[in-house]
Each structure stands twice: as C-alpha cells, then as structure tokens.
Amino acid sequence: MRKKGPFRLGIMGGTFNPIHQGHLVAAEVIWDEFKLDEVLFVPSGRPPHKENDEIAPPEHRWMMTVLATATNEHFSASPIEIKRKGESYTYDTILELKKIYGEDTECFFITGADAIAEISTWHKAENLPEVTKFIAASRPGYKLDMEKIHPRFRKCTYLVEVPALAISSTEIRKRIKRGQTIKYLLPEAVEKYIYKNHLYQ
Ligand code: NAP
C-alpha cells in the first residue's frame, strides 16, 4: 500500500540507444533505495548537445523502452520527449510531468553521472533545483567529482554506484557491428526487436 505524502516520481532520462539491463537494474535499485512510487522512463527525442548518426530513430528507441519496462509493475514509460518538436529539455519535461502527476509531486531525475557532471550547462539550469532532485547513476570506476558540481546542484544531487552499469549502450552497439552476441546484456524482447529492425548494423 502507498504511504502518505507527496507522490515520489523517479524520471529516468536518457537516450536509451539501446536500453539495457544496466538501466533497468539502476532504476530498480533506486526505486527501492529512495522509496519511489514509480519510475517513469523518458527516452530523449532529439538529445540536446548531440549530433550523432549512431542514434537510432526516436520511434525505435521508444518501442525498445516500452518492451523493456512492460513487465515491471512500478516502471512505466512516457513518449513526451519523443513527441515534442525541437530539442528535449529536462526542465520542460519536468514541468509537463508535474501537470500530469500533480504539482506537489516530488521528482527525482535519474540519469548517468557523466551527464549530471554537465548539469550547470543545461537549459534553465538555475531553475532546475526548484522542480526536481537529481540522482546520478555511475558505472564502476567512474567517479563523479561532487566538488566540481556547482553548490546549487550539489545540495539536491545524490550519487548511486550501480555495478550493473558496467553494461553500456556504446559497447552493445559495437558488439552488434562486430557480429558478437548481445544476449543477456538487454531484455530478450529488445534483442529480438534490434535484429528484426536491423538496428545498429
Ligand atoms: P546519454 O548520452 O544517453 O548518456 C550519457 C551517459 O550516461 C552514458 O554513459 C549513459 O550510458 C549514461 N546514462 C544515460 N541515461 C542513463 C540512465 N537513465 N541511468 C543510468 N545511466 C544512464 O545521455 P545524455 O544525452 O547526456 O542525457 C541524459 C539525460 O539528461 C537525458 O534525459 C537528457 O535529455 C538530459 N539532458 C538534458 C539537457 C538539457 O535539458 N539541456 C542537457 C543534457 C542532457 P549508456 O550509454 O549505457 O546509456
């Protein structure tokens, strides 16, 4: 049964190119540790600061996200950034989600620690701490230097090391190109979807 108090929403942001077990384990561990009510996966539409032809079309990344999250009862997925025209800004996403979930929703934006390291350069960065807290998920060996993060963000940023994030989307894409197996690195349905649609070849 849900406890009293504001709804605690984890917002899992990323390119998810493709989504893999590391993302799913990170979301599950954080859901548990931060007593979240739900973790909403939000694949980026056109990621800001990125020109990369290795990024699969948004529709495919969206489908893979849905396939990967469907069987977990406290996971869900939103196409809001995929549907939005122009660049995907986290600030706009959070305001839009607060309209849907309620203005008093407590938001925890979860993403990779290397992305969080750049947070002060994000769109409307100065306003972000008013609308969300941040959870930086780091892979083994990656050290986020909290001292380098502006104190304004440091106060509302939590760091969680997730051993399963040894899996990376970059490595999965390389393995596909080299014809190597990707079995067990991502959910079987996502693996099949990638081959059926000839992604990352
Ligand atoms: P990205 O290229 O997908 O990922 C950067 C790094 O973080 C990669 O090492 C990635 O590993 C890891 N990562 C990504 N999402 C993760 C997640 N949810 N949990 C754990 N690790 C994750 O990410 P990005 O394009 O830099 O952006 C990340 C998020 O921040 C997106 O939601 C994006 O919209 C937001 N962002 C917003 C702004 C803005 O508002 N101006 C600017 C930059 C980023 P894998 O490759 O294995 O996924």
UniProtKB/TrEMBL annotation:
Protein's pathway: Cofactor biosynthesis; NAD(+) biosynthesis; deamido-NAD(+) from nicotinate D-ribonucleotide: step 1/1
Residues annotated as domain Cytidyltransferase-like: 11-175
Domain of life: Bacteria
Any one GO molecular-function label of the UniProt entry: nicotinate-nucleotide adenylyltransferase activity
Transmembrane domains' residue ranges: none
InterPro entries in alphabetical order: Cyt_trans-like, NadD/NMNAT, Rossmann-like_a/b/a_fold
Keyword Cytoplasm part of the UniProt annotation: no
Enzyme class, spelled out: transferase
Alphabetical keyword list: ATP-binding, NAD, Nucleotide-binding, Nucleotidyltransferase, Pyridine nucleotide biosynthesis, Transferase
Catalytic activity, as annotated: nicotinate beta-D-ribonucleotide + ATP + H(+) = deamido-NAD(+) + diphosphate
Record-level GO BP terms: NAD+ biosynthetic process
Known EC number: 2.7.7.18
Family according to the record: Belongs to the NadD family.
Function according to Swiss-Prot or TrEMBL: Catalyzes the reversible adenylation of nicotinate mononucleotide (NaMN) to nicotinic acid adenine dinucleotide (NaAD).
Annotated protein name in UniProt: Probable nicotinate-nucleotide adenylyltransferase
Gene symbol of the encoding locus: nadD
